[in-house]
Amino acid sequence: MINDRLYYRRYVISAIIVLVVLVLLYQLFHLQIGSPKYKDMADSNAFLKRTVFPVRGLIYDRNGELLVYNQAAYDITVIMREIPADFDTTGFCEAVKISRERFDERMGDIKNLRKNRGYSPYTPQTFMSQLKMEDIAQLQESEFRFPGFYIQQHTLRDYTYSCAAHVLGSIGEVSHSDIERDPYYASGDYAGRDGVEYTYENSLRGEKGVEVLLRDSKGRIKGSYENGAFDKAPKAGENITLTIDIKLQEFAEQMLQGKLGSIVAIEPHTGEILTLASNPTWDPAIMIGRQRGNNYMSLLNDPTKPLMNRATQASYAPGSTFKTVQACVELELGGITPSTPFPCSGTGSKPIRCTHSHGSPVALVKAIEQSCNPYFWHAYRVTLEKNGYGNGNEKFRDQYSKWRTYIMSFGLGKTFEDADLYQQKSGRIPSVEMYDKWYGPKGWKALTIRSNSIGQGEVELTPLQLANMVATIANGGYYITPHLNKNDSMLSRRHQTLVSPKWFSYVQEGMFSVLDHGTGRRSQIPGIDACGKTGTAQNSHGKDHSVFVVYAPKDNPKIAVAVIIENGGFGATWAAPMGSLMVERYLTDSISRPDLYDRMCNSVINTNVIDRKHGRGKKFD
Amino acid sequence: MAGERSLIKAFDWQAIGLYLVLVVLGWVNLYGAIYDFDQSTIMSLDNRAGKQFLWILGAFGIALVLSVVEAKYYNIFSYAIYIITIGILLITPIIAKETKGSLSWIDLGGGVKIQPAELAKISTAMALAKFMSSYGYKVRSLRDLLIPALIMLAPMLIIMGPQKETGSALVFVSFLLMFYREGMNGNILLAGVVAILMFVSVVAWGTEPLGVYGGSLGFVICTGIVALIQVIFARKLTGRFRESLILLSIHGLMTLIGLVLAQNAGLNLNIACIISIVIGCIYMAYLALSTYRRTFWVLIAVSLLSIGYVFSCDYLFHHMLRPHQRDRIMVTLNLKEDPSGVGYNVNQSQIAIGSGGFFGKGYLNGTQTKLKYVPEQDTDFIFCTIGEEFGFFGSLIVLLLYAWFILRLIAIAERQRDAYNRIYGYCVAGVFFFHLTINIGMVTGLLPVIGIPLPFFSYGGSSLWGFTILLFIFLRLDASRAESY
């Protein structure tokens, strides 16, 4: 052996090992025999960590009206491992007023891994949820008799107004995947599922606290540990003030009754969304508590798709309202000047005819006023063909692509990336690639896509985008990303369009004439100078959609509104009166045309729309 | 063939017997840990005891295969296996899915996951054995340990760094035991102990005021240790007391002056301590120059490095460690009581073990491990079930079996003629010793919570197979000791 000199080290190492094992044995002796402390703790005391839920933040409207607040609800949870063999099942069923069969069924469901993926016998599982105080009073008095079962307080929401359901959203129990994604949540917790409740979940929810309780070996709670020295108080959620004007929202929703459609109102210079109405809708109070599941399913299965927020998730052809933004871009791209005339009669009225009767030829302001289709077709053609087509159609395609970029700089055809809205659709301003795919790179010309000139064809926008488009025109060339949180930091999300501010006055003038003596003259608002544009959008779902956009006052605009009534026919019939009423209601706090308002509210266009706001009241089944 | 018979005989059946006893006890105990009133039987594949049974059968199969491989192949392929392992370790964090914060598990599909860190222990031991048993190699100075240290550190750093698996990385420290046996200076082990002492002092009393301006108890203790080292080693180096006494007076005098100045002139006592050490160093430098005892320079370096180390510990602890790591250490040192947070695990496991008493509550009768939440009670905290159900008596038996097993491994290692076998054997013994110490130290609250399994007892195929391979390669090497010469 080479290392004989070091052989003694074998004994040093062995000694170290023996020494360490002795130290471990000493510690075990100390724990198990030397000190009765641990035995006592095991026999009489152990810790139970009970979650204390924070108060969820309240939601207010822009004028400080309380919209959403909390109400107490109780869950009964169970930790399977703690149920003793001699559990008093009969007594328990009596205390919570359920049948023995129901008890067995629930226990079976909880243990069934297929139904309850997150099951563990160590952690609290929800046995019954969302009970009222009177339901659990008896159990609370005798909780100690039923080891393993605990009462957990929760907060549920309640609503002051029965509107704005899409905006506010609701809270519901977190799913297994939520828990995996965010370790903050535990089984049985509540979190925002949609709307503002979802987007602002992190600030509304606050922070859970914990109570350290002592209990005996049978799981019975003996009280607080060290007078709560190790408890952590819950941190209440932050309140949030919305940009919504709840009175105006309610006003809009009233008018939408019996119709499919949407009304969106924005304060132009701040981008604050005043109204985001979509119909059909529901009373937010029906999504609370135990009935939530059933009501949700009935909304989900309703063919009119109430769960879809039409204001942000439905894309419509904007129809003639699109001519406003068209005019801006065509002026900027040099296709037209404010005085360029185009004929409206004879060969000029091909391939798109005019739907209104007026003199010919017309220039820009008059064309907007009279919504002259041939004018906008010629303007579009001239703009796109400005550089010719080129050998491989590339000059035309480049110009089209430029047109698209300019249009999209109004916030159209894409979602607002920096918005705080729950779900948005992007709408569509068709891309070069799309047309290349449809027709081949050389196969499309201005004539092919002529319908785009008047907001038909492949152009589709959401009502929110439409409202933002008007707000941008009202602002003379910029918009602030539309948002729901009334917070000054949102104001920095300012976007300048690619169209020079100098062109906007012509379009604004045209829009003023629309209401003054043009297609929307019947919706003039007494005493208010408003600028608007009607639209009648053809679609594949039957009668035309009635569309209207408006902002007012003409100078220093305070509100921009977009209205879409599905299958409502002419823009001037439904959308324009509603838009004008919105403006009037907001600017003057009153309406001078109550008959018109009543007619709007009481007319039913789609008989399938169910009004779920009637008969509200019961929160629990 | 007669050869086969003698090979079977040549195996160390005492070690194999201990292995079997530990594995079976582990399995039976595991069933106790997961036992539930509505659970199925010990053999059911629905529960972990049933699954562990399959892992155990697999382990036996592996042991059998390893036993028939020619012993020389282990030696021949040591480096190749090591290099492949390093490769696997490097790609693991890339292809691994995060499991409890670490990137150390490779999913082989079908619910089978392996932890390459287990493999790394074995192949590192083999590579170390190969290198240190090569012809003419001997540990004469620290420089000779440079390459072995690199062989050891490479997997350790990969596991600790990219894979974020501190527990498994620390296991490699256990190879120091083998280094010591092969000739590493014992002072290095001593230095390790001193370093830990200083760290604990800094953490425990680093901010503890002394009632004097600026001084902290932890810092004074640390400089005290350095002063003590100077005094003791001065005696060792010179062989007489004179220099030691002079150093002692220097430090004593400086402490007095420091106290007086701290009290009256607002001098920071910590600075006084450092000045004292520095004066000690100046005196030793004089000794080194005048007596040509150059080893004094080493002592000076050690003194100054120690002071630097104390400052780094302070910085490391208060600035580098993450809050949860800091909390774990604080709770272990009883500096922080926190039964609801970090200390919850340890508190619960202490209650479970402590409640076992002398004879325990009986098999399957543990209430703490059943009813209360001892975390990870079938993996890292498995010893709780032993402590609760079998009491001190059962714990004693298990610990004695382990001690016997490890000492037996050392005895086998010592009877090897081939240095490769001996070195590998010491590595094996070291790994088992380390796991035992850290795991039981952790569950009894002596050491911070470092998640490493208790060999043969914790649930998990990866660790069981790892330990089995580690052990049976050694037993196979041992069985061939008769063939070699």
Characterize the biggest β-sheet of chain A.
5 strands, mixed
**Oligomer type:** heterodimer
The CATH topology name of one domain in chain A reads Beta-lactamase
Shape, per Cα inertia axes of chain B: globular
Name given to the CATH architecture of one domain in chain A = 3-Layer(aba) Sandwich
Unreliable residue stretches of chain B: none
Number of strands of chain A: 17
- The proportion of residues in beta strands of chain B is under 5%
Number of domains of chain B: 3
- CATH homologous superfamily placement of one domain in chain A: DD-peptidase/beta-lactamase superfamily
Structural account:
- The complex is a heterodimer of chains A (621) and B (485).
- By secondary structure, chain A is an alpha+beta fold.
- Chain A has helices spanning 9-34, 36-44, 89-96, 100-111, 133-141, 165-168, 176-181, 195-199, 201-204, 246-256, 292-301, 310-313, 322-332, 364-370, 373-384, 394-408, 432-439, 463-475, 504-517, 575-588, 594-602, and strands spanning 46-52, 59-60, 66-78, 125-131, 149-159, 171-173, 190-192, 209-215, 221-224, 240-241, 261-267, 272-279, 478-480, 494-496, 531-539, 542-552, 559-565.
- Chain A has 21 helices and 17 strands.
- In chain A, strands 2, 3, 4, 5 and 10 form a 5-stranded mixed sheet that branches.
- In chain A, α1 packs across α2 and α10 (246-256) runs antiparallel to α20.
- The longest helix of chain A has 26 residues, at 9-34.
- Chain A is elongated.
- Chain B is mostly helical.
- Chain B contains 21 helices and 2 strands.
- Chain B has helices at residues 2-10, 13-34, 48-68, 71-76, 78-95, 116-132, 146-160, 166-170, 175-181, 186-205, 217-238, 242-265, 269-291, 295-320, 323-332, 344-354, 368-371, 383-414, 419-443, 461-479, 481-484, and strands at residues 106-107, 113-114.
- Chain B has a two-stranded antiparallel ribbon.
- In chain B, β1 and β2 (113-114) form a beta hairpin.
- The two termini of chain B are 20 Å apart.
- Classes of the chains: A alpha+beta (621), B mainly alpha (485).
- At the A-B interface, α1, α2 and β1 of A face α9, α16, α17, α18 and α19 of B.
